[in-house]
Write a structure and sequence with these properties.
This protein is α/β, with parallel strands linked by helices. The chain has 17 helices and 22 strands. β6, α7 and β7 form a beta-alpha-beta unit. α14 crosses α15. The two termini are about 40 Å apart. The relative contact order is 0.09. Its EC number is 1.1.1.95. It comes from Desulforamulus putei DSM 12395. It catalyses: (R)-2-hydroxyglutarate + NAD(+) = 2-oxoglutarate + NADH + H(+); (2R)-3-phosphoglycerate + NAD(+) = 3-phosphooxypyruvate + NADH + H(+). InterPro entries: ACT-like_dom_sf, ACT_dom, ASB_dom_sf, D-2-hydroxyacid_DH, D-isomer_2_OHA_DH_cat_dom, D-isomer_DH_CS, D-isomer_DH_CS1, D-isomer_DH_NAD-bd.
Length: about 525
């Protein structure tokens, strides 16, 4: 009999797929400390959690029988995925179950903003019947700007179209053809700011999207714009939002997520035209059941040794093939993640070339993992080892995979060309002795860089003084330089500098570097 421990009040209705299995026992656990969970986890084959239970490396180390960990929801930050992967434990989540809930909450926020529902309700409950103070606006005919056209953004677009709104969207990682099929106009972020009457955010929180909606963005917007964020806290600069609401530039805002949660003391909460909810985007009865059902079905499949759709930490492949290509999986994901941070423009095509001994094996799983590394950091939707190829296809990205047994200068080599509407990037990596993953080529320049840590990548003209000036700016920010190398093809031509640093270099310093004579571009890459 296999045993599944269910924590955090996961919906009982959603556990039906597990309870229907005659050889699976479901145990509902009470709230536990880490020590208590360590003490009992050894007797279970599977674990299901929401966000409260922390599945740490200690817990996983004590999980002698555990085969799969399920997260009834999307985020898996409370699960140590590296520890799980190292122990061969599959981690699955349920990324689709809350799509409708999040989209409907966005629409609720937008309608509440348009008709000033919360403020009118509050005033009436306080004994004041005041019709004149709450003159609203209609959604029909208004322009809705959607930042991020993934699963939830697309669902919002569909519902807003039913309200007869005109939809424009900014999403650098979706094809214009795909957007046209949805009757959505793809625009630049700056154009969206200028044209939209309502702006809603559906992007992941990354270093690129952090404070994406800031003072500069507000200055570009229409007078009377309304802002909604039901995605991730921190994408909207809350201090800047407060300033522009007080000025009257922003007619109203509705946030379900905050940079720091719980949030009970923000000055925004004192504004009558500000609507707040305590991170309720996925909080519907249906969504809680849906995510529980989805993860329960995944648990059953994993325990049966079958394919799981939403594995977030490992691919589905035969143990024999996995043993042969395992050393290249981490390299491939790092190459994808590196490329994601180097790109300019909308991805159109990804070409992966496998050279050397690798050409003898089935490299499809490696390509899938590379796509996961490329797309997951930049998309709102969950990208994993199973759905990465499908996500790329749905976004109009062509994926080409080729092999050649001639490994050129390396026993094995993975070369990745990513084509965008603004150009092409090349990145190549290999394994040195002892399966040490290294990046050996960036845009045609030979290099030898590790695949961990933080690094500045600076294409430049090969002339004296540039390396020193970049280093000085880094030092002025009190950031230590761990190493540096330069790749070049010819003296005085183009070159590339890779500088290893101990911390992420702030944006203002990166902008200062771009002003150095001879510097062509500056990219901050973290692996």
């Amino acid at each position: 009999m296999m045993k599944v421990l269910v924590m955090d009040g996961v919906s009982e209705q959603g556990l039906a797929p597990l309870r229907q299995q005659p050889d699976i026992e479901v145990v509902i656990g009470e709230k536990m400390t880490e020590d208590q969970l360590v003490e009992v986890i050894g007797q279970y084959d599977a674990l299901i959690v929401r966000s409260a239970t922390k599945v740490t490396a200690r817990v996983i180390e004590a999980a002698h029988k555990l085969k799969v960990i399920g997260r009834a929801g999307v985020g898996v930050d409370n699960i140590d995925r590296n520890a799980a992967t190292n122990k061969g434990i599959v981690v699955v989540n349920a990324p689709d179950g809350n799509t409708i809930a999040a989209a409907e909450h966005t629409m609720a926020m937008m309608l509440a903003l348009a008709r000033k529902v919360p403020a009118a309700c509050c005033k009436l409950k306080n004994g004041c019947w005041d019709k004149k103070a709450f003159l609203g606006v209609e959604l029909r005919g208004k322009t809705l700007g959607i930042i991020g056209l993934g699963r939830i953004g697309s669902a919002v677009a569909k519902r807003a179209q039913a309200m007869e709104m005109h939809i424009i969207a900014y999403d650098p990682y979706i094809s214009e053809d795909h957007a046209r099929k949805m009757a959505v106009e793809i625009v630049t972020l700056q154009e969206l700011f200028k044209r939209a009457d309502f702006i809603t955010v559906h992007m992941p929180k990354t270093k690129e999207t952090y404070h994406m909606i800031n003072k500069e963005a507000f200055e570009q917007m229409k007078d009377g714009v309304r802002i909604i964020n039901c995605a991730r806290g921190g994408i909207v600069d809350e201090a800047a939002l407060y300033e522009y609401m007080v000025k009257g530039k922003v007619a109203g805002a509705a946030l379900d997520v905050f940079e720091t949660e719980p949030c009970t003391d923000s000055p925004l909460l004192q504004l009558e035209n500000f609507i707040a909810t305590p991170h309720l985007g996925a909080s519907t009865q249906e969504a809680q059941i849906n995510v529980a059902v989805d993860v329960a079905e995944e648990i059953v499949a994993a325990l049966r040794g079958e394919l799981v759709k939403n594995a977030v930490n490992m691919p589905s492949m035969s143990p024999k093939l996995l043993a042969k290509i395992r050393p290249f999986l981490d390299l491939a994901e790092k190459l994808g993640t590196f490329q994601a941070q180097m790109l300019n423009g909308r991805i159109q095509k990804v070409e992966v070339i496998y050279s050397g001994e690798l050409a003898k094996y089935d490299v499809n799983p490696i390509t899938t993992i590379l796509l996961k590394g490329l797309l997951d950091p930049i998309l709102q939707e969950n990208v994993n080892f199973v759905n990465a190829t499908l996500v790329a296809r749905n976004r109009g990205i062509t994926v080409v995979q080729t092999t050649k047994e001639n490994g050129e200068d390396y026993h094995n080599l993975i070369t990745v060309h990513v084509y965008t509407d603004k150009g092409k990037r090349l990145l190549a990596g290999t394994l040195f002795q002892g399966n040490d993953p290294r990046i050996v080529n960036i845009d045609g320049f030979r290099i030898n860089a590790a695949t961990t840590g933080h690094m500045l990548v600076v294409p430049h003209i090969d002339k004296p003084g540039i390396v020193g000036k970049v280093g000085t700016i880094v030092g002025d920010k009190n950031i230590n330089i761990g190493g540096m190398q330069v790749g070049r093809v010819e003296l005085g031509g183009k070159a590339i500098m890779v500088m290893m640093v101990d911390n992420i270099v702030p944006q203002d310093a990166l902008e200062e570097m771009t002003k150095i004579d001879g510097v062509l571009e500056v990219k901050m890459v973290s692996l």
